[in-house]
Queue: 2 jobs
Job 1
Amino acid sequence: MDLIVCVGDHCHLNGSEMVVRRFQEMLKDAGLGDRVTLKGSFCLGDCSPRDEVAVRLGDEVLHTRYQDAEACFREQIVPRLGTGREDHHAEPTGER
Amino acid sequence: MAKVIYGVWKGQVYDNRDKQLFEIEDSPDFAEFDEFDPGNPIKAFMGGKGFFVFAKDVSLLDIALCYTRRTAHESCGKCTPCRMGTRILEDRLESLIAGEAGPETLDEIGELTDHITSTSLCGLGQTAAVALGEMLTHFRDELEREIELQRASGGARDRGQQSCSTYVTAPCIEECPSKVDVPRYIDYIKDGKFTHSVGVVLQKYPMAATCGRVCVRFCEMACRRTQVDEAVGIKVLKRFVADKEKYVTDRWFTPDLIAERKPAELKVAVIGSGPAGISAAYHLLLKGYPVEVFESMTEPGGMAAVGIPEYRLPKEDVLRKEVSIIESLGGRIHYNQRLGQHFTLDDLRDRGFKAIFLGVGAHKGKGLGIPGEERSVAGYVTGVKFLLFINHYHINMGLPMELGERMVVVGGGNVAMDCVRSALRMGVKDVHLVYRRTRESMPADLEEIEAAEKEGVHFHYLTHPTRLVTEDGKVQGIELVEMEQGEPDASGRRSVRPREGSEFMLDCDFVIPAIGQAVDHSFLSPEDSIELNRWGLIKADETSLVTDRPGVFAGGDAVTGPATLIQAMAQGERAARSIDDYLTYGRVRFDKNDRFSQLLRSIRMLNPEYVDKPVKHIYRIKAQELDPEERKRIFEEVEKPIRVEEAYTEANRCMRCYRVYSVTTEK
Amino acid sequence: MQGLINGKPVEFTEDETILSVARRHGVFIPTLCELADAEHTPGTCRVCLVEIRREGHDPDVVTSCNTPMEPGMEVLTRTQIVREKQRLQVELLLGDHDQDCATCVRHGKCELQDAAQFVGLQRSRYGRRVYFRGRTRDESSVSVVRDMTRCIRCHRCVHVCRDVQGTDVLVLHEKGLDAEIGVRDSLALGTSDCISCGQCTLVCPTGALAEVDDTEQVIDFFYDPDVFTVVQMAPATRIALGEEFYMEPGSNVEGKMITALKQLGADVVLDTNFTADLVIMEEGTELLGRLENGGKLPMITSCSPGWVNYCEKNYPEHLDHVSTTKSPQQCFGALAKTYLAGKMGVDPAKVRVVSIMPCTAKKEEAQRPEMTRDGVPDVDVVLTTRECARLLKREGVWLPDLEASGFDNDWMGSYSGAAEIFGTTGGVMEAAIRTVHYVVTGQELEGVVYAPVRGYEQLREAVVDLGEKGTIKVCVAHGLKAAKHVMERIAAGEADWTFVEIMGCPGGCMGGGGQPRIKKSYQSFWHERQQAIYRIDERCEVRQSHNNPLITMIYDEFLGEPNGHRSHELLHTTYRDRKQVVHHTMKEIWDELKA
């Protein structure tokens, strides 16, 4: 899955670099490097009116302040990497 | 490369004392530590987490004394252990060096270093005695040996040649391009001395109120308070004191500020009244040089004036007022004076200017000027910016970039070539280049064009964009029109005009305007001998800001590409120092503080260190804003000023993360 | 949230400090710079150390006053390491402190001496003159002395001056060992914006800030046979002096004070309360006069010299609001050297007036040029309550053991209950209302007491019903922050009050800068003192100023009528513009920064 950090004008000035660094560390620590590809992108077109950096996970765009990058990763990103989506195509096995 | 003979850092001990110098492995961490300035080897280094010795004949007592003396000097005096402890350590070390005390003093020193480190109030105290403590714990034998020698000779022993320099900094200071002493001006706010606070800021640049409104705050990104709750509101505090103290008056900036006036013939010309130019002029005036600023527009401020809206930065009340400090100091600003049009560099030389600073900014590199073009649209970035960011995020930080499937770059220069070729390398499948003239007319290097063609870039000559098509804030495509060539003009170049009815749509998801240069260099002629780099930015030496033409310096966006206000101001100050050196010594001299910053950056010393002690959470104040409904119709400042009580609360969140570093050299 | 202190489980809320939790559970941790009831925890002395253990962290030593307790944290307050470090800390504190305790005004009552005891200090290795030689001794003020060789940088004074009073005169100067509390803009205290309220002296833990000591002068007067000493005492002193002798807070030692002073050699001991009654007559008449003739309203009381100083230095353009009536102290002095001297057949030139006041600013007031006649000051010496205690102890007089006596009643020694309540915030207003109500409606205030102006809020308002004449709005303020608020309203033209009482000190005179200090506390005995004042009022036979027979007498025999010619000569004063604006130049600032 792609985790994209916006480095467009507005987000860059709001600390995209810090967000990228945090995510890089946390992906490494959590060993999620094979499931998540961290990328950068120029303006995602969803600039926040507050001091936030836009981050796209799959189809969803989230916003976080650079100071809250760790919390964002733990509370918003990791849950969305959940089991459901990837096994989406798996056959139902009768009882659950 | 420097070799560590012995030392301790963050608790890790290094001991190669029993090896010969050639047996000791090079430490890549200390790649920069061979020499401090050319021809001056570094013998030892001491910092907030320990120390390293690179030469066998170093006097530990001397290093420790030099370092401790600086910490005692920097101690603010509020808390007991640091205020008293560092001074007692200083006294004890002095008496040991004078041969008046014995090794038992080391016990007392050990008790004190432990105490200072564990019970001090701020970062300075907490790091001030660590190195000495480690020295004592792990290399006590070296110290005892030295103490005996001192005692035996009554302090008169020749301890060899060594000289010591110290440097005090903090993570926020190092991140700031101008190296503003952040903890110091926050200290003054804590103490209720707002005039002193603004004085600290004004030591670096004159535009304190502007900076306090628009700075991107590198300092806050490095702030260690983030580990407790949130970064300290450093910018908002700066704005608070800048607004409170009406410092832009004749009374504040008086002629006696200028300590020594330089001879009148050492005039300096500053081109551009943007942040870089104003900062350069400010520092040159304070050093006593006569300065004249030449501004091409009718109002000062450069990018700050044209690029920042009124509701973020009031032009009359704030920007223009601060620029007028230049005039209070005796400088002159000439408006409507465009380099290349009204005068040339040679003219300035003939008129007696002995040095010139080019702070012309990077105003071009804007858009295509076509309908549908908007600032924050997904899939749209200007050329030089694109390249700078790719450099920063992709090449330096290893971050893969998502650039869409099909990219259209508009332009014909080297910037455009770099854009298309970089795009291919980053996985864009389909890259197109659109240029309004013919292949022969392209200003890019022929090798570049050929390489790009070979790599599979699709070239569209005699084509020009007419409209950008976006939907839901995303680029969908670009409408292009074919051009036809007309009659040659006076210079022999054939004109081009759109061929009616030949518009066509090119679907794409990324558009990059790379037309013209970022820096308007129409003012430069070959006789000027100012070189530009391949992106059309003025070439200047990284540290000294000297260009290829003697006596001409450049800085700000014109050299770095579109960057920030604070970086431009830092460059202006740097240029002023270089110009001062040049006019006094004929060359730019070694700067101790710059070198220290460089050394520290090279071993990543100031990575925000873990805040271990529990700290009470005090959440950051939120500056009030004008009601959104109300403010969207007016241009009054949106961010309201904070109150005095809020300023005190916010200032008290600063943890004062000062650290002292020292370098012992031969000379 | 839960944690452990010395092995015992404790409960606490988020961000609560270790010290606060410990205190709640009866665990003692020695402290020095903190002042809990003023919410001051600067963390500069570093004495209140404790050891903490947390999972995943090495054991650490932290200051308990500003470190939050965290869930699962184990706090140890008496381990050997903690005790050694606390001792070393106090030793270091003493290092740059002038340890000549014998000559210090706080000897025996000093919180630093206490701290040394709490930590069990056995040696002091680091005291060297050179460490404190550079610090300032500022004797420019006649009210407060600053001796920075004793300053421990606790910042309590800065807190009280800046955050509680709002005057913001004290700042930290210099750094390192030379760091000391100084006066803003590097002025001397006597010529700065300081208004001499003395609140800073109440909270200073050492002898760094203290009242100017005038006891020697008083002893000179008492023992000089050629001099006729007349002593007056303020309403708020008699209910606080006992604290200095370990009596129950709120004890009324009026009678014992009289005995003590007579024993020391005072010729005549009389009462400031008498002139308080007089001030009510004068000021009440002045108020009614302004109401009738369209004079400047609201009228503001003038008996608090701290407040008058504040007005002169900050709002001189509104001085015409302040009543021209002198304070009770000054009225007393003027009358003692005229009326009293005449009645007692004493040469006025030999009269020396000594006043015992809860107030440090009174020292300055007594020396104002406006308070002299023919070059002779009306009041010669002012002693604060603290100095009075010191005087008695010096002379071996132990107050609690004395029998009570009465005032030398004759002409200026009796008072009404309304006078006694001057000592607390709201008292002057209430006293005035008791009299004004009678003068306007012809009837005494029902129930005698006027409760709406009583209380502790910094700014209180009430509406007084004057019968047919309608109502007037009054306001009571204490502390300078409230005073500023009042003045800002007046300046903006939004003040709709008729009469305003402003006391410079929080609590009114009972909380004055010259009152007994309570260690490690700022306003502890307020309640007891105030209750004592109201009790005295209740037990008085006469409750209203206009019913005091001695008042009737002085008007009949000497003054004529309130605001009459004689009154104006002796009992009214003028004020001066003392505002100063200090300008800064960048050069000054940068020179200071580089130093």
Job 2
Amino acid sequence: MTAYLVPNIHDPNIAQEPIRKGFGAGLLKCGEMFPNVVAVCADLTDSTQMSLFKSAYPDRFFDIGVAEQNLVTVGAGLAAMARIPFVSSYAAFNPGRNWEQIRTTIAINDRPVKIIGSHAGVSVGPDGATHQMLEDIALMRVMPNMVVIAPCDSVEAEKATIAMAADSRPNYMRLAREATPIVTTAETPFVIGQAQVFREGSDITLIATGTMTYQALIAAIRLEPYGIHAEVVHVATIKPLDEKTILASVAKTGLVVTAEEGQINGGLGGAIAELLGEQLPVPLRRIGMRDHFGESGSPGELLKHFGLDSSHIATAAHQLVTKKQRG
Amino acid sequence: MPEPRLDHQQMLLKADDIRQDIIRMLEHAGSGHSAGPLGLADVFTALYFSVLNHDPEHPDWADRDILVLSNGHCVPVRYAAMAEAGYFPKEELLTLRQLGSRLQGHPERLRLPGLETTSGPLGSGLSQACGMALALKLDKNAQRRVYVVMGDGEQDEGNVWEAAMLASKYRLSNIIALTDRNNIQIDGPTETVMPLENLRAKWEAFGWHVIEVDGNDIPAIIDAYALAKAIVEKPVMILAHTIPGKGVDFMEYDFHWHGMPPNHEQAKAALKELRTLRGKIKSEAD
């Protein structure tokens, strides 16, 4: 069942890499695979990992300075001329600052611009609340025509980047700054719009995205000694949501915990609550930011402080299962 | 196949036709912007009947010039010019702003072939043009140009100046932008709401070549575009001084007509005046 994931997920020394590194590697490959791929960056070429592409394809790279409104609208113009532009900055600014430009010139206009929001989540750390983007999933999920992707590790991010270059729709991809355990392998399938059952179980469904998918897998391991068999569904594409896979799992387990490094209101937690509320109402707990901003601190401290880790997911799951057993 | 050009007298008549179209469209729609589209009728006549390489029969013609309308609220003038040029039947103009119409209140590329992009929220046309111009440079295509028409009020937007810097950095001489310098915006005169002057000095300071022209003088507009094409080192900004509401006496210079359509009586009076004007053009032509 987890054959296509790495075998040592439980290992504290599991290999780690920032998710954004996978984007950088994927973009470099896209340069070779797709002659019409171009890259545009708003003065964050190294930290958003566009440097590899820039070195290999200097003529196809444009640094537009600290100008995020220009970033996406120049992207829309490039896309109008049969280019596939990847446009990157920090998620706090892209799509945080330029949401209207994305809405008008990319979404309503239906141009296949690939919007990259790096450094999302509280794990940005010491930079504090201004730079810890938590609302991007909600912002982009409500936008018609937009695809929203949050890969769980660098290996998946590389696959997602290549899939985005081949996708004809506007896409948003959320990336994280800190090293994240690598749970997927070259064999793990990635298809835009498909959720993956990363671990099978029968008692409860843990639905996670981005950096929190690893935490959900660890939570499932921690629940085993309690006799709780948790199923873990990784939702790499938050929009369009893979309703079929999610509903099939929830129909089996009847309980759900969602987990994301962002606001639960409007985020993955919101999306799952909407789906289940209409189609399959079951007890649900949402792990994520609960209508407040982050603050400065080390990434580890912040994840613990805000309850964004495996122990909080496991506790929520345990409570739901216990409550159900007590009737 | 590019659109056949019109001669001087034919273009004066065409601009008058376009103004009459605008009045009819806006009256029928019951909402929309009057002053800007009327003021821009001469610029759009020059563009669609002399300056642009385009083909109304084939809006996606691969060698066409691109026209980005950044101040999307002025789109009635573009719809009228497109209909006059043969992109679609003139009867369709009266569907403006109605449910199911291809002629949306603000232009949507996906609804009507030939629009190039979607606009309305201000300040984003020039930067889209930058992206288009960068792509043409990558293609080493020196034949096609990207034309932009933008408002003066929209230059309050920071996005405009981000684009101005970028065009200068990459020496995007394949962009020819035109500012409709009519000195009005919704809340009043531009210099009262948010002073833009010295606008020429601003664009020059951003590295652009600036040409000033009477934006209601068709031969002068065409000459300005011809000069702009000769500037190969810099992007070009044509500051076109226009009269808002041009051609309709009671609308001219009055900012209240920025976002208002004529009612039935006003439209009747406006059309009468434009027909009288047309009569004079004819007699001059004879």
